[in-house]
Design a protein that fits this description.
Structural class: alpha/beta
Radius of gyration: 33 Å
CATH class of the largest domain: Alpha Beta
Strand content: 5-15%
Number of helices: 22
Shape: elongated
CATH topology of the largest domain: TIM Barrel
Largest sheet: 9 strands, mixed
Length: 577
Amino acid sequence: MVRKKSLGFTVLKGIGASKGIGIGRIFILETSDLRINRKAVPDKPEAELLRYRSARDRVSVRFNQAAAHILKELGSGKGNILDVHALILKDQGLNQEIEFLIRGGKKAEVAVETVFRGISERQKLAENKYLKERFTVSRDIGRQLVMELLGAHRLEVVKGKGDVILVARELTPFALADHPANIKGFAVETGGPTGHAAILARAYNIPMVLGIAGIESAVENGARALLNGATGELIINPSPEIVADSLRLRGLEIDGEAKAGAEKAVSETKDGRRIELLMNIANTHGLNTANTCGADGVGLFRTEFLFLNKETLPTEEEQFLEFEKVAKALFPRKVIIRTADFGGDKQPPAAAETGGTPAYPGLRGIRYCLAHPALFETHLRAILRAGTAGNVGIMFPMVPGLETFREAKVFLKRTREKMAWEGVKLGRAMRVGIMIEVPSAALMAGVLARESDFFSIGTNDLFQYTLGIDREDNSYSAYERFLPPSIVQLVQLVVESAHKKKKPAAVCGELAHQLWALPLLIGLGVDELSMDAAHIPAVRQAVRALSYAWCRELAQKALLLETPAAIRDLLKGAAGE
């Protein structure tokens, strides 16, 4: 232990076992609470046996309740740390040994302490490393039985004492499993960061500092204290400045942890429905694993942006290097590269260089590329070369129907065959999918699903072409949560068509990150959502708060509604607004 005294406050240094800031009055948990009168003799051994058995059964029930609570908090694996406690209590040989001593004239608490102390000491000296490290388990079980027999439930003594920092020589995991809420931190002399007590402290988000030697004599009951579980410090009589600074730093730490946690958490509903969260990108500038916000991959690489704002068309090598960069950066996560969606307000540079059919206002997406074979072949060659990474898929935009899709696949196949004949290194055949952006494709989804490996619904254009409005039209912007029944029904049709052929269906338009639409999209069966990376943490958190079964019920109700206003009211009501 390190003591530092300065300006009226004292710092006791230990080992941080559970992060956080705890502020309260010191409460010393005296070890004398468990002192046993070893000279006492029971009046009737049979009554003492019943007293022991009743206490054992009560402790067994409490162990089971605590174990279930911890399992819920920690999940399987670490959440099973109290399972062995209840099993040991049922051990026939152990109970026979305790009852033998009671029949011989020992008080129940004396018999229990004697037997469990012997077990603990033997484990402590054992050559077997596992047994040696687990001697505290036996000691904990014996102590809980003794406390039950004496009516000394140790942590209960702090109830009604206000916010406290509990100081103890040692602390058992069972005690933490049922701790009073007014305990704001634990400062303990013994134990280690990997011990069960420390694991539970972290699970309950209670600050804990261990390894402060002689702590009971180093502090006074009732003293004001601040416990910093990150730095391993117990500060006695901290100044207001120290308190404010500690809380500020902890706030910054929590923000960082929340962001990291959001990126690592699984995007899964409470009842186990996995929703992949992918990101949309337009280029690879600054792309690395640190700024993907935990995305499951790239669901939409808008490749046309590699061409725009340039005086000449990018070469095959230039395009390949960009595609290879993102494939390697995200590996083994998948990367879906959409072929260039030219047309409308997105025209390639030096249009005369593209060759093929002259452009006209309605020529867009995959039809533009098919009308300009020189541009398309160079583009596909770059994507196919990047496919050697093994995690790349290709997606065609603005596919109006089966004929056009087949034409695009034939062009892709011939390009690949030509490259193979040239000796270009190629990976295995890519997955080939379709952007569903026009009503004709949505209505033919059942046919397209037979020949497409996946669907991605582009809700931006699907809105435009279904409703007959321009993407730049602001007349609908006043409608909060505008979602027409026609769009809901088309999304359902596309998803069901994909699932019938065991193909995944994604949403990659702006609707994908709208939290108000999330329950409906999940309920309609959407498998993946692709969005700007910055939206992913919030969407992941929202997914984890939802039940898939509830979302399904919501979607079924929405499918019966006839106006956008009715759907808006349904979603508001579901959100409790």
